Amino acid sequence: MTFVISLLIALIILVIYHHVGYVLLLNLFSKNNGSTEVNTENSPPLKFGILMCAYNEEAFIKDKLYNLGALLYDSDMYAIHVYLDGCTDDTYNEAIVAQSQLAKQNVVCHLHFNSENKGKSFGINELVKIAKPNYDVLLFTDVSALLSIDVLDKVRLGFHDEKVNVITGVYTLDENASDAQKHYWQYQNKVKNMESSLGAVIGVPGAMFAIRSGYAQLLDANTINDDFILSMKALNDGGKALVDEDIIILERECDEETHDYSRRVRLGAGNWQQIKMLFGLLNPKLGWVSFNYFSHKVLRGVMPILLALIYVMIFSIALTSNLVLPIVCMWTIITLHAVYFSKRGLGIKTKIPVIDKVTYILNAYFLSLWGIFKFERGDYKQQWQRVNEQAPQQVQPIKVLKRCIDIVGASIGLILLSPIMLITALTIKITSKGPVLFSQLRVGESEDNYVALFNVLKFRSMVVDAEVKSGAVWASKNDPRITPVGRFIRKTRIDELPQLWNVLVGDMSLIGPRPERPVFYGKLERDIPYFCYRTYGIKPGISGLAQVMNGYDETIEDARNKIAWDYAYLLSTSSARSWCYMELTIFVKTLMVVFTGKGQ
């Protein structure tokens, strides 16, 4: 217990340092680091290549190009390059119209069209290859963002300092953005301004940043946060990165809440990837860049994992001891999330200032945790998509929340139930021959283009090679293959506890339809129409409505009776309120099965 408490304190200190201590240190050192004035009167002209990738941007592309055509800079000294990456809407035609108008203003605009969507990293690499030899500065920008018309002159003056390799501006959201997003970017801009005073801005908004062309490097094919990787690689040799407060970047495309959730998942995956890709930036020789990178981005990348561990340890200590503070912390956490989910489920719009901010931050981190799991699972090896064009199941808040609950619940369960699992393992080993754990192939979540298969883990409750003679068959109530210990652990569902690991790694959920064996799937699909849709877009669960209402399957008729329960659960996920009620009901019924021994 002492070790757990010590570790908990250390993790909390790291969290406080990242969110408060680092900012205080920045504030202290940035005030004492008076910037040296650079004489910019005779700054030489620089030739700019303005680069942007476009994928289905018909709503913004024309206005963006007109904005760039109106920049207060010699039109002979800059050119625009747009990479149209397999657009399926009217982006290309809109860009052609704008291109012809820019030509009348003597502004050069090159449209690079690709009929196949190759991904944003591919598009950026193609633009860098074309532009790097021909321009002094490469300015990257997003189609949805408008720039102040003096941006090129401001960047030119900033690059008069030969040590500066990267320049960006102040990122401003449209008035339609949510308050939570506005507060987040106000905080980020404050931090970046202080980092800028030290010449070490960590991360730039993809909406606009400029790099000396000699320091622009090609991206790996599966890069997620391209803006961050591009800008930070430019600092590998010790250059500076600055924010010019006079450069305004206006983001017109504001995410809806569900789209913001999806973006947070992707950012979490990107932050995790960045730690692996930019490990060299931790070199102390880089000075403030190294210090700021660790304090800002490395800790931000691992923060979701740290918070999940803190949750697990707080709940573990609170449930296994009489210490007052962990118990208070546990109930505070429960209250915070209960308020949030109640507001979401009941559609309450009333703002609760402190609670709303805290829950937004916590939710962002747990969405990022889901992003880390998705990255490690290989989900980000595909072409880019606009957030608001992604399939509904990718942005469904209930699905994200369900995964967060699964991770926290499985972690707590593995810790708290480890004594029971150890005793069970020893008992099985002593009373019967064979392995303690039993692994069996099951069918997992299905989508339009794939069906997941995984190996489910259980404590062995039958004799070894139980199906050698009979083949694959369902267990029956008085099945002679079940061992005496196996009969007890099946009744109490203790045999299912190893599946908490399946939940933690993302194969299963705590609650969902029962995972079926592939060997039975063909027959069940023939005898029960639409049987395969019971796990469409949802992971199978350790417990579920069908399991607590019907128990184990013994016959096709049992499976037919259970499918109605599975569909009832699946339909409940269409409404936050009905889903919350369903989850709670199943949880209570599962406890009744365990403690009354009514399992089979």
In short:
The protein is 51% helix and 14% strand.
Structural commentary:
The protein has 20 helices and 12 strands. It is an alpha/beta fold and 600 residues long. It has an 8-stranded mixed beta sheet with strand order 3-2-1-4-7-6-8-5, with helices on both faces. It has a two-stranded antiparallel ribbon with strand order 9-10. It has a two-stranded parallel sheet with strand order 11-12. Helix 3 links the parallel strand 2 (78-85) and strand 3. Helix 1 crosses helix 6 (179-197). The longest helix has 33 residues, at 288-320. It is elongated and about 90 Å long. Mean pLDDT is 83; it is low at 389-395.
List the helices and strands and how they pair.
Blueprint lengths: L1 H30 L16 E7 L6 H9 L8 E8 L5 H14 L3 E7 L5 H12 L5 E5 L3 E3 L3 H8 L5 E10 L5 H19 L10 E5 L13 H8 L6 E12 L5 H21 L10 H33 L3 H23 L6 H25 L14 H4 L1 H20 L1 H14 L5 E10 L4 E9 L24 H8 L7 H6 L4 E3 L6 H10 L13 E3 L1 H6 L5 H17 L3 H21 L4
Parallel strand pairs: 1-2, 1-4, 2-3, 6-8, 11-12
Antiparallel strand pairs: 4-7, 5-8, 6-7, 9-10
Helix pairs in contact: 1-6, 1-9, 2-3, 8-9, 8-11, 9-10, 9-11, 9-13, 10-11, 10-20, 11-13
* Shape designation: elongated
Would you tell me the structural class of the helices and strands? alpha/beta
| Cα-to-Cα separation, first versus last residue | 36 Å
- Percent of residues in helices comes to 40-55%
How many beta-strand elements? 12
What's the rounded overall pLDDT mean? 83
Q: How much beta, percentage-wise?
A: 5-15%
Biggest sheet: strands, sense, closure?
A: 8 strands, mixed
Number of helices: 20
Low-confidence stretches: 389-395
Rg measurement, Å? 28 Å
For the biggest β-sheet, the strand order reads: 3-2-1-4-7-6-8-5
